[in-house]
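PROTOCOL LOG
Step 1. Enter all chains and additional molecules of the complex.
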Amino acid sequence: MVIFGVALLAICFLSGVFFGDLLGLILGIDSNVGGVGFAMLFLILLVEYLKKKDKLNKQTQEGVAFWSGMYIPIVIAMSAQQNVAGALDGGILAIIAGVAAVVISWAVVPLLSKGGSVNESIEGSIIGGDQSVGNSR
Amino acid sequence: MLEIAGNLFAKNGLILAFAIVGLTMYISYFLSDKLTKGRIHGSAIAIALGLLLAYVGGIVSGGEKGLADLSMFTGIGLMGGGMLRDFAIVATAFGANFSEIKKAGFNGVLSLFVGVVLSFVVGVIVALAFGYRDAVSLTTIGAGTATYIVGPVTGTALGASSEVITLSIAAGLVKSILTMIGTPFIAKYIGLNNPRTAMVYGGIMGTTSGVAGGLAATDPKLVPYGAVTATFYTGLGCLMAPSVLFLITKVIFA
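Step 2. Run joint prediction.
Step 3. Record the structure below.
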């Protein structure tokens, strides 16, 4: 049933946020620490476990997939209720930060995609001839 | 007539929000397709339109919550509020799994950490240059420079002001749009023509829509590889920014 998927998601969400609140309390900062990230980890692990046990039927998955699909629309609703007028003074900051992050990240990509003997073998197994990659997918 | 419609909308705010957002997305994807030939992803245009609506709402109402300050559009506030937003973000982890990330190898995982920290540091430095000195604002802007999701999640968790949260979204949006547009042009200079580099690219850039859109314009075969790592980026950012990165920022700028 679809609700099983939604409930699964809700349980992961609540435990993740609970964990985040708990961690915030332990660390002595009055805030939630990485609750959403923990919830994502729980969901990945739980989904993988249930799939292995074959306990995750198509409808249950649809319950989770629906909310995954609502992510961009919700983000749009979120952006529509931000204090844009108030932040407009600092618009230059956002542009500089965004552009700088992208340009610097681009410069780092070749450093990480090259080198490392471990990855030589991985490259071989993954790439295995550029053309065959598209076919195997 | 108008009164009936007004009452109807006020009573069914969340449903109205679904309709408004759906229409906004339809228009955005239409514009993306016709005006940019899909080069700028529809979702990026939709978010920009959302920010524009928020600007109009803010000017009309004089409030701090954009469109949601107009009584007719309170449903937007519910739909885009913290509860549903975080719920949907968690759901996006559904597509990812650890056996796939293993394929990215050590460099793929490393690229995720490098990517989050690098963007965060860039954001913090720029925020410093613009006169922000408190750890909460610095962390939020740094987090937003990672992605426009990590920013508001971090900002809400730390209690940042709405202006700072908006800046963090805008920074992430600039990053996402530039990644979408720029990827095909930069690809040949950074060797982005094979799956392994695509995975590293997804991990470094992190913006899922930016990476997916940019790789699709470069070579559609690379999209799933970039997406594999990029889907972990937001989760990792949400985990690190309000915790480890905030604590480090707090120690440095206390």
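Step 4. Note key features.
Residues 2-27 of chain A form the longest helix (26 residues).
Confidence is low (pLDDT under 50) at residues 115-137 of chain A.
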